[in-house]
Structures are given as structure tokens and as C-alpha cells.
Amino acid sequence: MFQFAIGGSVLPFIAFHLKDEGFTYGEIGRIFFTGSASSLIFPLLWGFLSDRYIPLNRLFLLLNFLAGCFLIKLYQAEGLLAHQFLFACYYAFYHPTIILINSLCFHHLPNPSMQFGKIRGLGSLGWMIPSLPLFLLFFYARQVPTGFCLYVAAGIAFANVFLCLLLPHTPTARSRRAALPPAGLLDPEKKDEYFHQLGVLGRDRRFICLMLSLFFGAASFSIVALFSTPYLEELGVDRAYAGPIQCIGVITEVILMPLLPVFFLRFGYVNGMFFGLVSLLIRQLLSYFWPDALVLSLSYVFVGLMVIYYFTVVSMALERLADKVVRSTAQTFMVMLGSGLGPMSANLIAGYLAGKSDGADYALQPVFGFGGLLALVSLACLVPVYMPLRRFLDPSIMGGFGGSRRPSSSIGE
Predict the structure, then answer these.
(1) Cα 292 to chain center, whole Å?
(2) Per the count of CB atoms within 10 A, which of 64, 69, 89, 191 is most buried?
(3) Does residue 177 form part of some domain?
(4) Degrees (nearest 5) of the Cα angle 130, 276, 345?
(5) Could you tell me the CA-to-CA distances from 130 to 8, 94, 298, 308 in Å, in that order?
(6) CB hemisphere CA count around 167 (13 angstroms)
């Protein structure tokens, strides 16, 4: 819950803070670009370490501490280069935890496919925790800079350092394998099963198409996440309301996350992914064709649906496609594309498009048209593997969550 509260403190207000620092939309796009660029390297490093050397619960402690330190330095930064560097550091240490926490849950839950939705709903609830206090602060104390949200996020990160001491121990896959009897050890011809299984995953057509879809879907979603609040300000909404308006989508997550098992048993996991992407496409098209503050505020419901039915299922599918020894690494591939390469590319182009029309009415409108195109391409990437994924994931076809990829039938084994 409190891990998500860090992001809930930063994301609704970071664009306002950067605008108050005097940056143009083009420069803000470059700052977001460098943050996403850090996700090309560090998530894979954290996943590699948690799979082989550092228990995941201890890694969370380290990442929270470092994220808190860089949030404080970001508030104190001056100049474009300093903001780019420090925002990239914050991104490198915080954002991978949002996905790695899924791996932690999958490891300890007895029946993750049925239980994960309820746990993930607590994360959405945590995202909302800072919204009301920050709304009241920015609404009634106008002299307080929006950058104060960074101090709030840093305080939560430092509090999480102590909460991480209470996390259940999560041994590395390498240490679990070392404890097996000789019959369970690696084939002597395989020098390192970690890299072998990583290669198996990388050659899986379902995995490749899923990653391509994630690249374009996450790129489109990053436009909603980072540019919606300044767009609402362009439409006349007081920036103090940014947090509560975003909570419309988060409330949708809190309500529907516990009902995920019911939806998936009725419609299937793969159809859930398509439903999430269609929801994102609708949100982007509304932003482009209907620039109305009330409509766009209420349409945050579609943002919540994207998070519930797309990102959650992608994470579950990766956990199922990957062998036990590379599961944390597989989750960090999701961060590399979902918080890294996809948003990095989108933010660079979005900053260019916004910069071209900076100063005009609805300067951010073209950005959302571009986001709609990205969502459409993401949908197209899933079409070639629709039936293979459906046979692999959906209980309605397979008689239970699972497939023939390997003998194990439990996500969290």
C-alpha cells in the first residue's frame, strides 16, 4: 500500500512542479525522457540481483532508501541537467519496485491468480492516500510550492525502509535451487540455467508479441499519466484538484481489483488485456476530440480499467511464461518496456509535439492524438498471438489458469 503511495505523491504534481521551475513542455518531455531511459538498465539489474544474489525483501529496503534520497535532491535541484539526472535516479530506484512487488506477492500467495487482485487493490488504495492531504494543502495554502510533494514522497519512502523489515523473507531462486537434493539440480550440460531459461523466454513468440504490445501500450499510457494534469489545467481546472481527479481512476481500481477472478473466469485473461487497451484508446480519443474538463475528469475511469485489465494481466502472463529461475527478471522486462523504452520514446515525441504548439490554446491536444495511435498499435500487436495466449492462460479453455509451458500449475511456485 505505502509503496504505491510514493508514486501517488509524485505523479499528479510533478509536471506542475517542473512548470513552476520555468521549464517548457519540450524541456519537461526531455526530463521525463531521461527518467524513462533509466528504466532500460536498472530494472534488469534489480531483477538479476533478486533472482540470484539479494533476497527481494532486502532489495526493497535498499531501493526505498535511495529513492527517498534522490527525491529530496530533486526538490533542491536547479537547471535542466540537474533535474534530468535526479529524476532519472528517482525513476531508477523507485519505479522497478511497482513491478517487483508483484513478484513478491506471486511467491508468497497460495493461489495468486485468484488472490492477487485483492492485494493489488490495496496498492491502488495506497496511491490515493496522499491525494487528500496534498489537495487540502495546495488549495488552502497557495504559497506552498507544488514541489513539496517530493518531500512527502521522500518521507513515505523512508518510512517504507522500516516497513520492509517486516516483509517475509524471499530467498533468491539461486539459493532455493542450491537447497534441492541432487535429483533436482541442473543438467550438467547446462552451465547456467538462468541464462538458458532467459533464452527460452526470449524465443517464445507469445512473449515477443506481449512485449511489443507492452511497448506501445505503456508509451500511450505514459502520455495519460504525465500530461493529463497539465492538460486539465489548460482546460481551466485548478491544479489543487489534480490528485482528487486522478483518484477517480484509482477508485475504479480499488472497486474492481477484488473482482478480477470473477471477470477472468467469465471472459478470460486475454480478453481482459484487450478490454484494458480499448479503454485506454477511448480515453485518448476523448482527450483529443472532446477537450472538456468534466468529460476528461470522469474519463479517468478508463485509465483505471487500463491498469486493472491490461497491466495486471501482462504481469500475470509473464509470471506464467517464465521459468522459476527468471521470474523476477521477467517482471523487470515489464519495467524496462513499461516504464523505460516505451514511455521514453513517447515522452520525447510528446515533448516535441507540445513544444511545437506551446502557448496556443490546447497545446497538449496533439499529444493525446499521438497517444491514441500508440494504443491502436498495441492492440494490433496482440492479434497474432490471441489464440496461443488464450489457450495458455484462460480457464475457460484450459480448465484452469495454466498451460503446457512447464509442469508447474501455480504462478507463485
Answers:
(1) 27
(2) 64
(3) no
(4) 75
(5) 6, 17, 20, 21
(6) 24
Tell me, what amino acid is at 144? V
CB 318 within 8 A of CB 392: no
Would residue 120 count as lying in a domain?
yes
Q: C-alpha angle with apex 170: 207 to 257, nearest 5 degrees?
A: 60
Please give the DSSP secondary-structure letter assigned to residue 167.
S
CATH code of residue 99: 1.20.1250.20
The number of beta carbons lying within 10 Å of the beta carbon of residue 56 is 25
Element (H, E) at 230: helix 205-234
Q: Is residue 409 assigned to a domain?
A: no
Q: What is the pLDDT of residues 113-163, one digit of tens each?
A: 566 666 666 666 777 777 777 777 777 777 788 888 888 889 888 988 888
Beta-carbon contacts of 147 under 8 Å, excluding residues fewer than 6 positions away, are: 13, 17, 20, 21, 75
Question: What is the C-alpha to C-alpha distance for residues 162 and 157, in angstroms, rounded to an integer?
Answer: 9
By the 10 Å C-beta count (0-12 exposed, 13-18 middle, 19+ buried), 174 is classed as: middle
In which domain, by residue range, is 259 found? 2-170+198-398
Residue-wise DSSP of 91-119? HHHHHHHHHHHHHHHHHH-SSHHHHHHHH
Q: How many CA atoms lie within 13 A of 147 on its CB side?
A: 17
Give 307-357 pLDDT, tens digit per residue.
888 887 887 788 788 887 777 677 777 777 777 778 878 878 887 887 776
Please tell me the total count of domains within the chain. 1
Crossing angle of helices 2-10 and 112-128, rounded to 10°:
40
Cell of 28: 519537461
Tell me how long the chain is: 413
- pTM, 2 dp: 0.70
Query: Is 322 within a domain?
Result: yes
